[in-house]
Every structure is written in C-alpha cells, then in structure tokens.
TrEMBL record:
Name of the molecule in the record: Xaa-Pro aminopeptidase
Species name: Candidatus Phycosocius spiralis
Keyword Protease applies: yes
Domain Peptidase M24 C-terminal: from-to ranges: 543-603
UniProt-recorded Gene Ontology molecular function terms: aminopeptidase activity
Amino acid sequence: MYQTYDVRGGADQGRKALPLIRAQLEHLGLDGIFVPHEDEWQNEYLPDCGERLAWATGFTGSAGAAIILKDQAFLFTDGRYSQQARNQTAAELFLQRDLIEQGPAYWLRAEASEGTKIGYDPRLIAPDALSRLKTSASQAGVELIALSVNPIDRAWQDRPKEPTTEIIPYPLAFSGETSASKRSRIGEKMASDGLELCVLTSPAALAWLFNIRGKDVTRTPLVLGSAVLLQDGTAQLFVKPEKVTPALRGFLGNEVSLYDEEVFAYTLQGTKGKRVLVDPAITSAHVFDILDAAGAQVVRGADPTILPRALKNPVEIAGAKRAHTRDGVALANFLHWFDHQAPKGHLTEIDVCKAIEGFRIATGALQDLSFDSISGAGPNGAFPHYRVTVESNRPVDQDNLFLLDSGGQYLDGTTDVTRTIAVGVPSAEMKDRFTRVLKGHIALSRVRFPPGTTGSALDALARLSLWEGGFDYDHGTGHGVGAYLGVHEGPHRIAKIPNHVALEPGMIVSNEPGFYKIDGYGIRVENLQFVTNAAPIAGGERPMLGFETLTLAPIDRRLIEVSMLSPQELTWLNQYHARVLAEIGPQLDKDVRAWLEAATAPL
C-alpha cells in the first residue's frame, strides 16, 4: 500500500522545534526567520528533507509559511488549511494568519517592528515572492538578510538526506514527442528571442523536457535536479550521480550532457555576458544571485516548458483517456463495495482509503497515488484537504455524507476524482446543497467559450447556484493536471483569483465546486476534463472552445433534488451516466455491472 496513516507534525513538534530555532537566531544575531513551505526546487509536495515548515511548526499542509521571532511566531495558511493549522499547532506559540489576505508581505508592512532583522534562505524563495517581501520590509524599516546556511537545517539534527532514486526514461509511446524535438523547438524560440541559455530548476520542467520520471518527490514522479538548455537544443542536466544509469545515458543521447548537481552553481558562474532566460516565479533567488554575480545578462521570463507541458498532445490525451477508463473501473468496483459495506456500520475512514487504493492496485497499472486520499466521514469531510491518521480516524457516519477525493498515477495519465456519497438517508438540506454544487459542476462542464478566455472568467459559473442560496467555498474551482506528472499543474486554473493564461485545446483541468458545513459534512463533485474545439453553434458567429470530461464515475443519484435541475442539466447528467455505463460497464463483473446500471439509471 502507498498511503500511510501515521500522525505527522502536531503541536508537540512545534514546541520542540521553536527553542532550537530561536537558539540559532540568537547565535546569528537575528530577530526572526522567514520559513516558506517551498524547498530548493519550489515543489508543492516535498521530499522529506524539504519539510522545513512542518518540522518548525507541526503544520503539514502543502501551502503555507511562517515567521518565527524570538518571542512570537506566526503561521500563514489559506482557507483549505485554516482548521488543520489550528489543529496541528500550539495556540500558545503560533498566531494564525490568512495566507492570501494577510500574508507575510502584509505582516511585514502592518505588524513588524522597525529595525527588526529577519533572515531568509534565498534557495527557498523565488525572486517574485522575495520582491514583495522586500518592498514591505522597506516600508516598515525591517531588514531582510539573505542567509548562506539555513538555521533550521542546523537545528534539525536528524534531517533526512536528499533522495537518490534512479531516473527512469519515459518512452515515446507515452510522451508523444521526443526530448530532442522538445529541446529543438524551445531552442529555436530562444534563438528568435535572442536568448543563449535557459536555466531550469523546476522538476516538472526537467521531467517533461527530457522525458524522464523519478521517485524523488512523494506522490509525483519527479527528479530533483537542474538544467541548462542552449539555443541549439543541446542541454546540460545536473543530478546526483547515483541517479544515473547506463540506460539513461543511452536514452538521452549525445546532445544531453550529464553532470553532478554539485557543479551546477560553478557552471552558472561561467555565464558572463550571456543572455540567460530564468523564470523569477519558480526559480530560487539563489540562482539569480549567482547569475548576477557572474555578470550574466539575466532575462526574466516564464519557464518556456510550462505552456507546452500544459498543452497535451494527442498521445498524451489518448493516454489520459485510457488512464481514466482504467481508473473508472476501479472506482465502480469501490463504489459498489462501499454501498454494500457502509450501511453495516463497521467502516472507518482508513478502511475506505485502503479499499480505494486496493481497487486501483488491482488494475495492475498503478505506479503511485497522485496524492494522499482525502477520506472524510461526516464533519471530517468539511476540511477540503483532510488527511486521515490513526488518531483522527472516524467511523463512517450513518445518515450522513462521506467525501472521498482520490487519484492514481499511471504511466499513461494522472487521475483525480471526488465523489460525495450518501450513507443512509440524506437530509433535505444535504440534498439542496449537493444539488447546488452539482449544478455548478454541470455549468462548468457544458460551457462554451471563445478562444482567449481564462479560467477566472469561468469560475463564477461553478459558484452561481451556491451564491443564489447564500453559500460559497474557499478554494479554487479547477487546477491543471499533468500527464503522469503533478496532480496540480499550471499555468492555467479556474479560480476567483485572476489568471491571465487563456484556456487552450489540450489543457487538462479539474472541475470541483464544493460546499462545507463545519461540524457537519462536506460536499465536492470533481471530474477532470480537457479543453477541446467545440462543435459550431447553430447561428453563431465565432468559433468556440469547450470541455470533454475524462473522469468516468457515477454521481450519487440519492443526493440529487431533481426538481432543482433544469432540463438541460438533467440531460447532461443522464448522458454522462449513459457514457459511464457504456464505457465502464463491459469491464465489470456481473454483480458490479448490475449495481452500476442502477447507479446510472436515467433520472
């Protein structure tokens, strides 16, 4: 099994860590330290050696930051993690702040004392984020000091070592384009822009550009390392030597030179006078410091692999469809099992996690989970990023809702699906809220939109029915998804926060509106879908784009208040269920198929 249920972090962890960190601050003559969640590669999900925020505070969420002073400490988290942060940190030690509305930059400007000296590790923060901190610090009279050694690394005596798992070639049958072709077309664009080099430190960029995968990062098949791409399409790849095999050398060919990651900084020192493209949003400030000191002509711009990586080619889309069909079989088997076991009253959240993972393993193709399953019974379902442990493990409530958000990593695709399931008899309130969420989901599935439209322009469609009832949810509506890569992938998204990247054909994005009643239950309906060229609209004047749904799993009919659905919404739901039955049904055993026929029967 991939998922574990041990208790991570917690208030005692912060209580033990803070005195050690403050001793380091005293030694360095600092008043405080800024602790981001990000590691040297700006990952979302981190290797164990990068979990500095969790070690320092006890908070284990995938987004957040802290400012630790000699006599106070502040933890910043977004709406997904506000309750988790309160549960995992000591209230007498950490003051909670909203990461979006009252983030570290706001804190520096509004709460920091003039003359305060706060250290930061330039390896763990990108220049764009650092610039915002420096602006606020300057306004407040605070001194930000770049540190050559991170005090947390000194205090963390048993810090795990960086992983050294072997790099795995990712074949053309799954990638759809050779590394040489990718490097050549990006190199040509660099040449046309007058750029000689591009520095890449994002593991996702390396995975896509070189057609490689690894096991350095939990739940995401990434390789930690760095690269330099030249305009002629040749490249230098810097990784730990233990990761390199003869098969990898042969796969990459002569145009890619492999080096020990220890010489990456030395190589950058030889860029004097060269025009070097670096992304200031996802590359560490440390890299920029090296290039500036070397005399390079640094050109700040977007990582050139981000948009091509998001625009899935036909082979990747075909792979995503296969992965979701396979995953759909596992989901049907699981939902059938759950419907028969949950009413007996013996299931727990961990039982559910083990079951869905087991059904995915039974496909024979699962490489890993795409994230730890969010398995929430009753009130635990109201935490959007809840992670069950042996301490929090709750029985599956009767006459309540169960929320399961889970996904798998397969060689041909990454899946992510949420289903909210009725256990026993749902209340009228539950059905009302569920149907509002479903209406938003359907609206975002059916929409047609002109080229150039961003995800933020579509976000309100998913929230409208909830707004009409006086409700909302505090997370984005859709995130990009990789092709056997990260379950969260930019640059596109669907959210209230403005996003300036237009949706284009080939982009995969989630569709996941929700509703959360604290101390009650949680609701979310999530499918993955990809952008397509929509069929012409009769009488229309402009070409339109739309979405095609990838996820194949029934939506719980018992939770739907049919009278709230429009004829168009009802048609969409019945057609979706007919497709699920047609594509998944033939691959199921007789009993499960009979269950699926009932679960997808027309309303």
